[in-house]
Design goal:
With about 250 residues, the chain is of the alpha/beta class. The protein is about 45% helix and about 15% strand. The chain has one domain (about 5-250): Alpha-Beta Barrel (TIM Barrel), CATH 3.20.20. The structure holds 1,3-dihydroxyacetonephosphate (13P).
């Protein structure tokens, strides 16, 4: 059985007090439950990590960052290294998010460098991939995702692949209210799993959690999660509302 995961990507939302309060309410919800249907992960801004880590310490919710530096340490003003993230108690980091690719010009090579650094620092990586609308319309979405995987991920060893969660996020579905249909998600998730199988073999491909992201909400999560190659979600907007986030975790079969 593959690990089921629902990760909330807070993006650049909530100040410190708001974030700590929110994390506390999520922690309490899952503590009171006998077992969650999926592992909930909160991916917070850097400044929240240490405080949220304390709050989540004895609970059932995991913690992640949304980015890390492409260098290990040194004179890189304003950057936060993978090891610093790990030292807060966070276990995960999102890398390759389309907003980083788009607004901060992160390319596949840079994302690959960060991914290796994160894994070598003891983090697990939520590796994002996905096409923009024009690529989907041109029918090149499989080619784009293939390149993102091959350059960004496939330099890893099979052992390192154990530390990877892939998130397929069609960029046209992020924050737009447009969702990929469950069949579109399944089709791409299967494609991703097949590519991993070709490169690393069946065992590795079978174990790999692949999450869907892009306007996932309580009303569509169950149907998307019901697809055989969809192992959970990476949630933006709806992860900022407690009821919505827990409902999406509960939507896992
Ligand atoms: P939305 O759920 O707001 O569309 O964002 C998805 C996302 O980018 C998660 O990383």
């Amino acid at each position: 059985m593959r690990k089921k995961i629902v990760a909330g990507n807070w993006k650049m939302n909530m100040d410190l007090a708001e974030g700590l309060k929110f994390a506390g309410s999520i922690d309490k919800y899952f503590k009171d439950k006998p077992s969650a249907r999926a592992l909930p992960i909160l991916c917070t801004p850097f400044i929240h990590l240490a405080g949220v880590s304390e709050i989540l310490k004895h609970g059932k919710v995991a913690l992640g960052a949304q980015n890390c530096a492409s260098e290990a340490s040194g004179a890189f003003t304003g950057e936060v290294s993978a090891w610093m993230v790990r030292s807060t108690g966070a276990e995960y980091v999102i890398l390759g998010h389309s907003e980083r690719r788009m607004y901060y010009h992160e390319d596949d090579m840079l994302i690959n460098k960060k991914t290796l650094l994160a894994i070598n620092s003891g983090l697990k990586v939520i590796f994002c991939c996905g096409e923009v609308l024009s690529e989907r319309e041109a029918g090149s979405h499989f080619q784009i995702v293939k390149r993102q995987l091959e350059v960004g991920l496939f330099t890893l060893s099979e052992e390192q692949m154990d530390k990877i969660v892939v998130a397929y996020e069609p960029v046209w579905a992020i924050g737009t209210g447009l969702t990929a249909t469950p069949d579109q998600a399944q089709e791409m998730h299967k494609f991703i799993r097949d590519k991993v199988k070709e490169k690393y073999g069946n065992d590795c491909a079978k174990k790999l959690p692949i999450l869907y992201g892009g306007s996932c909400k309580p009303s569509n999560a169950a149907e998307i999660f019901s697809k055989p190659d969809v192992d959970g979600g990476l949630i933006g907007g709806a992860s900022l509302k407690r009821e919505d986030f827990v409902a999406i975790v509960e939507a896992m079969q």
